[in-house]
């Protein structure tokens, strides 16, 4: 019996603007679908390329893997690593593992939430910062620790965190539209 060709959603959906990157993503997803256990690698690959897994892509992924949209959505929401929206321009990761917890990480986490006005696994309203937990940065002897844009920082106090966030903001490219 000849396999029925699958419908292609991303590049031929009539009447919709199609992001040209999605043609490539479709090939990536299809490549993983041919392998057992390919769903997670496919999702990682999409997120590595785009920074998130667009909700509009779920139908295509479900089709390729012969799953329902709910099943794919369930996998994406089960793993906090996966994003359904783009990350902020900066990513602050606060270590929440044991050594840091013992030396004030909870207070630091609370300060980060309050200062940024968003919870973990979320992004500030202006898109500047995403706040993420991390479980040990290898700086246990200098707890509490954070990572800002891939750069580790040790013995972080709330004041030090404020300074780090201020510097990150100051280093952002000047955007005339931001200054009224
Ligand atoms: S527990 Fe935080 S760096 Fe190791």
From TrEMBL:
InterPro entries (UniProt xref): NADP_DH_HndA-like, NuoE_N, Thioredoxin-like_sf
GO molecular function: oxidoreductase activity
EC number annotated for this UniProt entry: 1.2.1.2
Enzyme class of the recorded protein, top EC level: oxidoreductase
Keywords: Iron, Iron-sulfur, Metal-binding, Oxidoreductase
Source superkingdom: Bacteria
PANTHER family in UniProt: BIFURCATING [FEFE] HYDROGENASE GAMMA SUBUNIT, NADH-QUINONE OXIDOREDUCTASE, E SUBUNIT
Protein's name according to its UniProt entry: Formate dehydrogenase subunit gamma
Organism of derivation: Paraburkholderia hospita
């Amino acid at each position: 019996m000849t396999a029925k060709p699958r419908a292609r959603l991303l590049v031929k959906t009539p009447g919709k603007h199609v992001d040209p990157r999605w043609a490539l993503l479709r090939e990536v997803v299809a490549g993983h679908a041919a392998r057992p256990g390919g769903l997670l690698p496919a999702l990682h690959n999409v997120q590595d390329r785009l920074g998130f897994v667009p909700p509009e892509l779920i139908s295509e992924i479900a089709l390729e893997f012969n799953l329902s949209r709910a099943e794919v959505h369930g996998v994406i929401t089960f793993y906090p690593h996966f994003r359904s929206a783009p990350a902020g321009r900066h990513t602050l990761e606060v270590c929440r593992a044991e050594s840091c917890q013992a030396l004030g990480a909870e207070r630091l986490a609370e300060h980060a939430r309050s200062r940024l006005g968003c919870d973990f696994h979320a992004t500030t309203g202006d898109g500047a910062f995403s706040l993420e937990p991390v479980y040990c940065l290898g700086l246990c002897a200098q707890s509490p620790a954070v990572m800002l844009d891939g750069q580790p920082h040790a013995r972080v106090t709330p004041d030090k965190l404020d300074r780090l966030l201020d510097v990150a903001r100051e280093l952002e490219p000047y955007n005339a539209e931001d200054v009224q």
